[in-house]
Amino acid sequence: xxxxxxxxxxxxxxxxLMNYCVYRERCHKEVEKKLDExxxxxxxxxxxxxxxxxxxxxxxERFAKSFAxxxxxxxxxxxxxxxxxxKQRDISKYNITSxxxxxxxxxxxxxxxxxxxxxxxxxxxxNPAKRKKKLADHLFYKGYESPLVYEKVHELITS
Length: 159
Fold this sequence. Notes:
Blueprint: H1 10-23, H2 28-37, H3 42-54, H4 60-73, H5 79-88, H6 93-100, H7 105-121, H8 128-142, H9 146-156
Helix pairs in contact: 1-3, 4-5, 4-6, 7-8, 7-9, 8-9
């Protein structure tokens, strides 16, 4: 009737979290969530997080930079979306600013252009207004800034 949950010692949980952090960069919020899933008490959580910080398994600045680079290069996200996602993970303003500096402006504009051109080939509508709206919506969803989106849409689709 009752579910039994495996219990962990602080040492076991610490090792489990070290492996969790080695797999890929993690933010504090993800680590705390994992500790909650392991049903660790607050004192144990604090002790484990402290150990992870001391041994550099957990580094918020490194996480933010890695996150920004990865989402930009792999998922082609814009700065607005990356910024919002970092804020949702409770990353500090300083670390968000430092992460955004990881994105080269020329590469950013080139990626916006490639993303827009690729999406445009996938829009079947012939009506220029509908094409513009669909393209703009896609670029906004990806997280690109309004002035850049409108400029790119106007450049690629002339009514």
